[in-house]
Amino acid sequence: MSIVDIPSRTAETSTPIHSTLAERWSPRSFEAAETLDEQRLTAALEAARWAPSANNSQPARFIVARRGTPEFTTVVENLMSFNQAWADRAGALVVAVAETVGDHGAPRRWAEYDLGQAMAYFTVQAHHDGLHVHQMGGIDPAGLASAFGLPAHLVPVTVAAVGTLASPDALPDDTLRARESAPRTRLPLDTLLLPTP
């Protein structure tokens, strides 16, 4: 199977949405031989920097580990095994970290929410520029914090693989290849809307 054989990745929506959002998806197959374009990576990080945050507190922090560096290997070692099986082919792994306490010691209750918004901006900008992003929850936050010497108020929340899309054939097993080419699905919009009294 080649990239052209993958079923359409465009979301089926109840009403039209921006094409970058409709076409964004989270692949696991990345071109391992291709070097990540630094300008496009910087643009994604800039988009993340300009995401909204509560009281403009800007609690999003990032560790950017490029393939071929010791930092990249460290991040891979702190992924769950099902993510290790494919994530080492990405051009970079970005550890998304929430700063959960502010400068004056006050807890930032919305830090993880705001970090999520920053990662959404990162993902959409990257996709717009021809990169693909796959965010992972299967990580070892304590292992990452220890490996990178993070203080207690800097909490790793997710890791995002970013790179150039490759064929599903590049994935190491049939299960991953099947998931890569499976149709995209979402709950119907009506399911997400809670009833009001």
From TrEMBL:
GO terms for molecular function: oxidoreductase activity. Transmembrane segments: none annotated. InterPro entries: Nitroreductase (IPR029479), Nitroreductase-like (IPR000415). Keywords: Oxidoreductase. Residues 22-66, 78-163 form the Nitroreductase domain. It comes from the Bacteria. Belongs to the nitroreductase family. This is Nitroreductase family protein. It comes from Herbiconiux oxytropis. The lineage of its organism: Bacteria, Bacillati, Actinomycetota, Actinomycetes, Micrococcales.
